[in-house]
């Protein structure tokens, strides 16, 4: 996971989302707002809806590679995911900044799982709503899940590029930052799907090969336009977190350290 680029919807689409949200907010009770959020989102999140066609197009622009999921960065993103679940926070159901493009293997298990740091004691409090329980607003508190629309996940965690290719929290155990990273990793299953560490291991090889190609082509004297195409190819590869960590951890890998010494401009890609 990385911090996603800031992209704005066209004013017309943003205005329509605001109108949709007003319909939900206008319901007299929280329970009715939850029901309206689910019903109206299902009805409007369709390819026949011009506004949601634009929503999906903009979310697509945030994705890496061939529309890779903004959470795992591996599978195809095909679901408009609410970072703050609409069944818990109906006031966020049509809020543009609450959307990412996700894949089913990430969005399905996450579903309505969420947590806050309780205002009473600051402890991590999972929000549990048993089936059939009365619909009550979630407890107040700071959000635990790292929000890639607003925060850089790599301020809280890093990829182990030296062995496991799994995410690990960077803060000290017991701190709020540690709990946020651990919770995000676990709720999105970023480590316990074996395919993901394997895919990241493959990705680092692909990135290194592309970087070697760029260095060799630059030294051969190819045109600036051709070099730009190589750079764009690297920027559009899947697993952008691997690329971010390659740059951040380059001094831990002799081959990478040498490469970036030769092409230091790659640090800005």
Report on the structure:
This protein is mainly alpha-helical and 269 residues long. The chain folds into 2 domains: 11-187, no CATH class; 195-268. Helix content is 44%, strand content 9%. The protein has a 3-stranded antiparallel sheet with strand order 4-3-5, with no helix packed on it. A two-stranded antiparallel sheet has the order 1-2. A hairpin with a 5-residue loop joins strand 3 and strand 4 (124-126). The chain is globular. The mean pLDDT is 95.
Counted beta strands: 7
Distance between the termini: 17 Å
Record the strand order, biggest sheet.
4-3-5
- Write the H/E string, N to C: HHHEEHEEEEEHHHHH
- The total domain count is 2
User: Overall mean pLDDT score?
Assistant: 95
Count of runs of 4 or more consecutive helical residues: 9
In short:
With 269 residues, the chain is mainly alpha-helical.
SSE layout and pairings?
Elements: H1 11-25, H2 30-44, H3 50-62, E1 79-82, E2 99-102, H4 104-110, E3 115-118, E4 124-126, E5 141-143, E6 157-159, E7 167-169, H5 176-187, H6 195-220, H7 224-235, H8 240-248, H9 254-262
Antiparallel strand pairs: 1-2, 3-4, 3-5, 6-7
Helix pairs in contact: 1-2, 1-3, 6-7
